[in-house]
Amino acid sequence: MQKTVAVLLADGFEEGEAVVFIDVVRRSGMQVDVLACKDDVVMKTYFGTRISTDFTLADKFEQDYDAVMMPGGPEGTDNLTSNPMVIEFLKRHIDAGKYICALCSSPAKVLGKHGLLEGKHFTTGSGLETLVEKGEYLDRKVVVDGNFITGKGLGVSFDFALTVAQTLRTDDPDHILWQADHIYYEGWPESVERIEA
Known about the structure:
One of its GO terms (cellular component) is cytoplasm. By secondary structure, the protein is of the alpha/beta class.
């Protein structure tokens, strides 16, 4: 069965992080639903790129996904973390053991602020780790700890997206290695810290 991934976007999100992730995960053979965490699908991005989503979060709130992803962006993560529907959606997926994939400021400002990283190793944008009271920070590009996958920021977007894709596509991990080679991306998966249980 095809894996499904929800990408949560709020006004002010970092568009580069979102677009790289969506591209890599879709080309890896998964269904990606891009969800606006507001009442309409036309988004305001961090740097003014015109982007629209597939649906609103309200449209797909009852659907269960194999993974949920959030990019960074200072205003975007502020808007995610202050949205009760986003937090409820995340908690439901965490409780179900689904993958939670957070990049740049979203590990600290969304997951950390709500105590959702307790007992987990994580990475986030430099300096933001001080916002997280529960969780163990690692200064690595990408960290995988159980069902949590976190990344530092825009510069590691490919490492992050390929890691999510490889983690989900256990049926064909060689396909993800091929995808990395196909786009001439080097240095991965050596850039990833995987925490063994």
